[in-house]
Amino acid sequence: MSSLLTTALDSQHSSQHDATTHSHKRNFEPEGYPPLHAKLPEQQPTTATAQSPGVLVVARMAKSGIQYAVVDAFTAEPFKGNPAAVCLLQDAAKAADERWMQSVAAEFNLSETAFLLRDSSPAAAAAPRFQLRWFTPVAEVELCGHATLASAHFLFTSVLAEHETLVEFATKSGILTAKKVAAPASAVASGEGKLFIELDFPMIDLVDCHPAELPSIPETLNGASVVSVHKSATAGDLIVELSSGKEVADIIPNIHEIEKCSGRGVIVTGPAPAGSGFDFFTRFFCPKFGVDEDPVCGSAHCVLAPYWGGKLGKQRLTAFQASPRSGILHLELEPASSRVRIQGEAVTVMTGTLLGSERNSSPCFEG
Predict the structure, then answer these.
(1) Is the pLDDT of residue 46 over 50?
(2) Residue 300 domain-assigned?
C-alpha cells in the first residue's frame, strides 16, 4: 500500500493527495510558511466520560484512522532535538499487536515510535494514565526518555484537559510520570521557553566492563582520548568518558565496530567546556537498533546523571547532547528514591492520521 503523508496544517485539505516519500531528514525550516509547531485550532469536544477523567474526546479526523503526531523532544526549536512519532490508539487489540506496531515504527523510521492507549482501570483514577510502549525501526525497547517526553507533550497539548498537569504511563519499566513544571533557572538564563515537562525515571547503576571488551574501544572510537570505560547495569551500554566535551562533539566513531560491542550501544561523554553553561556533553550510538546515532537520549541520562553527579559533587546538572540535531536536558538526582528527574521542552512538527488500521493491513499516512 502506498504511503501518503501530509501535515495537518489545513484540516480542510482536498481528498486528492499526491504520493510522497515519508522523509524525516528535516535540517531546515521553510521560510514563508506558518510554524509547523503551531497549535491546531480548538475542536468542540464531546462530553468526557467517567472512565476518562480529564480527557477531551475530540473528533479531529473525518475518516477512520489513528491520530498521530511527530514531536521533537528536548528542544524548543523545530527540527532540532530528537523526533518521535506518537500514536494514540483506541483499540486494546491493536495495542497488543506487536507485529503491527513494529511495522508502523519501521514506516516512520524514526529513532522511536510511541504507542499510547488510555488505561481505564481503577488504579488509573487518580490521574490520567496511559499504557505506553516504544519501538525503534527494528525492535521494541523497555525504556525511552525522549519518546516519553514527546508522548506527554502530545497529551498535554492535544488530548488532556488544560487543567491537567500530571500524566502517568504504565510501561515495561514500571509506572512513569510526566508533569508540567516551570523552567529551571538554568533554562531561563539561556533564553529557553518557560514551560517544561518533567519525567520521573529510575536511576541506573554503572558496572565494570569485562577486560575483553576494553581493547576494542580505541578502534571503535577511532583513537579518541579515553579516560574511563564502564557499562550500564540494565541495557549493557558502554559508557566511555573522553577527555573533553569538544572531543565528544567532534568524534566520528566506527559504526561497524560499535555493532560488534556487547549491549545496546556506546554512550560517549565528557566534561563541558568552561563557561558553556553545561556540566557535560553526551552522544549515543546504537546501530543495533536501526539508529546509528540517537540524537538526544533521555534514558542514557539515567546512568549519566548519577555518574557526573558523583564526579562533580552536584545533584542538579545540565547536559548537552552534542549530536548534529543537539538537545538540552536538565537533570535532578533523587538518591533516596534512586530516581532521576529529567526536564525538557518539546515541539510538535507534524500531525496526521495513520490508516490501514485493520489487523493485517500495512500502515499508511494521511493528513
Answers:
(1) no
(2) yes
